[in-house]
Amino acid sequence: MLNSLLAALPFMSEARADLVMSAFWPMLKAGILVSVPLAVASFAIGMVIAVAVALLRISPARTRLHRFLLAVCKVYISIIRGTPMLVQICVVFYGLPAIGVYINPIPAAIIGFSLNVGAYGSETVRAAILSVPKGQWEAGYSIGMTHIQTFRRIIAPQAFRVAVPPLSNSFIALFKDTSLASFVTVTEMFRVAQQYANARYDFLPVYIQAGLMYWCFCWILFWIQARLEQRFSRHTVR
């Protein structure tokens, strides 16, 4: 029944309908079991890097070590923001073996994605922290809190609410960018689509199907993002 409906589309045929149906479940499985975990793991590691870099950049540089680390962070952010993500992943997977460092495909993809998220996320986190009025710091100090306590109890919750929308958008973009992992042989959703398209030498229907499946996954993420923003907006109003 479904094959007949697909075959009725202008650019479809029975062979293409069979191809689309045969590719659907393997692509969905790869999306759930590989693409989503790849995005989640990369984003989690990337946010650890982002917070560390952001805190380092907003803290006064009083020592040589701090100034050195600050310079390293600026170079790191400049390199990541100035080069394509695909190049970064390929350097990790295909380039490092030239110096004797061999990394499996999935860890290589996670490293590449995490470094990218860390660089862009650090700017978002830094901007969110700086958006909190300085009076909030002074209020914390006035009641006897230390610098760390003030940040953890007063500044961080407010900064987190500001950072939720842009970081949510970053995660959605990262999920779509997991398709780049196919270039380092990770069998994620787009890699499966390539395999089925290459086997039949028919690319249009499978690639359109892949695009629609990414769109469906992203709609779920859009819904989660909207719920998060509504929740934090209610808390802000209160």
UniProtKB/TrEMBL annotation:
One GO term (biological process): amino acid transport
Gene3D superfamilies with a match to the protein in the record: MetI-like (1.10.3720.10)
Glycoprotein keyword on record: no
PROSITE patterns with a match to the protein in the record: ABC_TM1 (PS50928)
Compartment(s): Cell inner membrane; Cell membrane
Alphabetized PANTHER family for the sequence: L-CYSTINE TRANSPORT SYSTEM PERMEASE PROTEIN TCYL, MEMBRANE COMPONENT OF AMINO ACID ABC TRANSPORTER
Name of protein: Amino acid ABC transporter permease
Species annotation: Conchiformibius kuhniae
Lineage summary: Bacteria, Pseudomonadati, Pseudomonadota, Betaproteobacteria, Neisseriales
